[in-house]
Amino acid sequence: MTAATDISNAPNALKILGLQKEYIPGKPILKGINIEINTPGIIAIIGPSGTGKSTLLRCINRLIEPTAGEIIFHQSNLCLAKGRQLRQLRRHVGMVFQEYNLVERLSVIENVLTGRLGYMSAWQAWRRKFSQDDIDMAFQLLEAVGLTEHANKRADSLSGGQRQRVGIARAVMQDPHILLADEPTSSLDPKTAVEIMELLEKFAEEKNIPTLVNIHDVNLARRFAKRMIGMSDGIVVYDGAPEGITDDHLKQIYGGESWLV
Amino acid sequence: MTTTHSHWQRFTLKQKLSRYSVYLILLIALLQSIRTVEVIPEFFYDAPEQMADMFTRMWPIDFAFYSISVHDAMIETLNIATLGTLVTLIFALPLALMNASNVVSSPFSHWIARFFLVSSRSVNSLVWALLFVAIFGPGVIAGVLAIAFRSVGFVGKLLAEAIEEINMGPIEALRATGASWASVLLKGYWPQILPAFFSIVLFRWDINVRESAVLGLVGAGGIGVVLNDAMNLFEWQRVAMALLAIFAVVILAEIVVVQIRKKLI
């Protein structure tokens, strides 16, 4: 493959080439995805449930093993990374989850600090030997997401929106070069959903990183995204500016039209 | 006009017949076993009298005996139970991790873990004690190992189940941060199984206090030795003292466990 030669050298460039994933042999859920990312800001991935959006994001940080294809990040193919190399690449890929995925019995601040686990040995993690810089950064991030006074509360005492803020702070704590957010607003009410999107947008701009957001709310996606990727049936059917997406595209992506008002 | 009725039955005729034949077999087995145990009616009807006789011999309880030998033996019993439970953890934790399908995915590892857990549980602690008394001679070490070997299966199995029930979301999130396997274990799995862990260990300690009280009967140290000697010498007032001490300690252990568990969870 000569693909590696023409990708940008920026640390936050990501190039996905011919990515395929089959959970059951012969039944691919991702049928050859090609996406190139090198500009900061929110990139919304829209599409119906079961079309492989979550699988795509999880293939990028290898929480799910891709069946075929290449993912070029930091000038190396993520699909081939193993052990320590994979963990070091993962450190720079932050991830935000639909169900927040906080460690509920740990305090809020410790949840944020777990974003640094990739930079520590297990021995240090066990003794909670976070560096002073890490602790300062964690408190700054908590302030940025507006949860300073909750720092020492247990994560399971927070509301959904607050938990997602902690989830975002944890991802940013990783010093990511790219952020992945898998349906970050789907479990939240509309007002909180907008606040969470604003927060993601803020960090994307501040840290100058691309943020891939899986989202099924088209209007929310249009409002925040700089670029939209429409997926349907395991392939990319639209990739471009949010203004360019038409009802025809939406019909193709989601099927039917009765829901389009 | 005829209305059509939907027909529904919980079981088909064949299923009904097989169910009733199972009941019939159970009944026959019950009758047959009553015939084979050969209860001797004289002894059976005599039982209340014998019991009353035993209680009169036990009374008054020989409280002076407590400081003579019951106290030290009781402490020994508690030591056996506690040390046995601690030794259990050394084996039970790795086996539980090996047996939990969401930690190790290799069927080979599950098979090995299951083999040890099942063999530990399938042997009663009294039998383990007999084995260890034969190896190490009578005394505390045999008791500690008997308790430990019997508990490994129990603690390991319950712990593995607790691990399998945890929420995998946070595990996924920690793996995504680039954390090493050991860090994920410490920061993702451990906080989630912590309440179950202490609950299981305390529960097993509670059981072990009771079990180690009996181990002395086969010479593995503790209050059981005192109880056995007193019985062999027909010193029923001393037997009563030993039984009372066991009863008191078991109740105390129960209270302590309930209090600690309340604090932890």
UniProtKB/TrEMBL annotation, chain A:
For whether the record's keyword set contains Membrane, the answer is yes
- Give membrane topology per the record: Peripheral membrane protein
Report domain ABC transporter positions: 14-258
The entry lists its GO molecular-function terms as: ABC-type phosphonate transporter activity; ATP binding; ATP hydrolysis activity
Cell compartment(s), UniProt: Cell inner membrane
Q: Name one GO cellular component term.
A: plasma membrane
Q: Which residues form a coiled coil?
A: none
Pfam families for the chain:
ABC_tran
The reply on keyword Nucleotide-binding is yes
- Give the highest taxon in the source lineage: Bacteria
Protein keywords: ATP-binding, Cell membrane, Membrane, Nucleotide-binding, Translocase, Transport
Q: What is this protein called?
A: Phosphonate ABC transporter, ATP-binding protein
From TrEMBL, chain B:
User: What domain of life is recorded for the organism?
Assistant: Bacteria
Q: Which residues form the ABC transmembrane type-1 domain?
A: 74-257
Q: What is this protein called?
A: Phosphonate ABC transporter, permease protein PhnE
Family as reported in the entry's similarity comment: Belongs to the binding-protein-dependent transport system permease family.
How this chain sits in the membrane, per its record, is: Multi-pass membrane protein
CC annotations in GO: plasma membrane
What's in the keyword line of the UniProt record? Cell membrane, Membrane, Transmembrane, Transmembrane helix, Transport
Enumerate the subcellular locations listed in this protein's record, separating them with semicolons.
Cell membrane
Under Gene Ontology molecular function, one entry of this record is:
ABC-type phosphonate transporter activity
The residue ranges crossing the membrane are 20-37, 80-104, 125-149, 189-207, 214-234, 240-260
The UniProt entry lists the main location of this chain as membrane
